[in-house]
Write a structure and sequence with these properties.
Blueprint: H1 2-12, E1 19-24, E2 36-43, H2 46-59, E3 63-66, E4 72-74, E5 79-86, E6 91-93, E7 98-102, H3 107-117, E8 120-121, H4 133-139, E9 142-144, E10 151-153, E11 158-164, E12 170-174, E13 193-200, E14 202-203, H5 206-223, E15 232-235, H6 245-251, E16 258-259, E17 262-264, E18 271-274, H7 280-298, E19 307-309
Parallel strand pairs: 2-5, 3-5, 4-19
Antiparallel strand pairs: 1-2, 6-7, 7-13, 8-14, 9-10, 11-12, 11-13, 15-18, 16-17, 17-18
């Protein structure tokens, strides 16, 4: 029984690891939607993270790993079993251009502000995007280059990472191990867990980096919702090369469509926002409506990009 598995997990969990029961997930996601985590573990060191995940696998309790909660929709009924929140911190400069970062460190503002203040380029492109380091590797975090001519990916500055493999081994891997693609990495296909990551950056004038950051934030502000006003999980559907999921949803007249507390964002149709008190069921209904309408009227199949949890 799941309850028995949860109790077995809690009995064997290291007492030094913070754990709570029946924790609301609303403040732990950028969507501000969802029920409670049956058990929430806050893993604040690599050892605690590896221990919690390893124990959960051994016991066989249903387990969900989350970070910033920026790319997920949590169900209204919550998440059964154990939720492990990656809060592993630590920023260490190994040399003048290489930084080792805990997987729970937020890329923005924490890591980006720190590296830019030291005149190091490479992570500044991702200003304004909510993510932890672990989440950034999971999705191969990306944004447009300053001249908007290409997409910059975080794989370009990743030097290596410490991981817990799905087989339970802690080891160091290089960037190639992740088999990165667009919104894609090996982490989508294996239950590996990132503990820390090393980024090799490039010296650059601080004001030049801040200029790029300002331009990127302005570009985002024109197209993306302010998370304080419109909580969201970012792009809802995967990119369709040469077409754009948002463009298709707009073309069938659904931009701005509202259902309960959820709405398709009026500036970007591939984003659903929480307009106040939205339920996961309302978001799912909007997703279904977009998929069905685009398929029927335009012949394209929209595939969810966000994780549907619980």
């Amino acid at each position: 029984m799941p309850d028995d598995l949860v109790e077995a997990f809690l009995e064997r969990l290291d007492p030094a690891v913070p754990v709570s029961r029946n924790v609301p997930m609303v403040p732990l996601t950028t969507f501000r939607i969802g029920g409670e985590a049956e058990v929430l573990v806050r893993a604040r060191t690599p050892d605690h993270l590896a221990h919690a995940i390893g124990l959960a696998r051994t016991v066989g309790v249903p387990t969900t790993l989350v970070g910033r909660g920026a790319n997920i929709l949590v169900g209204d009924g919550g998440i059964p079993g154990v939720v492990v929140r990656n809060e592993v911190q630590g920023v260490e400069y190994l040399d003048e251009v290489t930084v080792r970062v805990g997987a729970g460190v937020e890329t923005f503002p924490d890591l980006i502000v720190d590296t830019v203040s030291r005149g190091l380029a490479g992570l500044h492109h991702y200003v304004g995007i909510p993510s932890t380091v672990g989440g950034a590797l999971w999705q191969n975090l990306h944004f447009l280059s300053p001249d908007r001519s290409r997409t910059c990916f975080i794989e370009e500055v990743l030097h290596g990472a410490d991981i817990l493999t799905e087989e339970g081994e802690r080891c160091r891997v290089d960037a190639d191990y992740f088999a990165f693609g667009y919104d894609e990495s090996i982490l989508h296909h294996r239950d590996d867990v990132v503990l820390s990551a090393d980024f090799r950056l490039t010296p650059a004038p601080v004001e030049e980096l801040r200029g790029v950051m300002r331009a990127n934030l302005e570009w985002r502000d024109d197209r993306h919702p302010d998370l304080w006003l419109y909580p969201s999980a970012g792009s809802i559907f995967q990119k369709i090369e040469g077409v754009g999921a948002g463009r298709l949803i707009d073309e069938v007249g659904l931009k701005g469509h509202v259902l309960g507390g959820a709405g398709i964002f009026h500036k970007h149709a591939n984003i659903i926002v929480n307009q106040g008190g939205a339920r996961a069921a309302e978001v799912r209904a909007l997703m279904d409506l977009a998929q069905e309408t685009v398929s029927r009227e335009l012949g394209y199949e929209l595939v969810p990009e966000i994780g549907l949890v619980g």
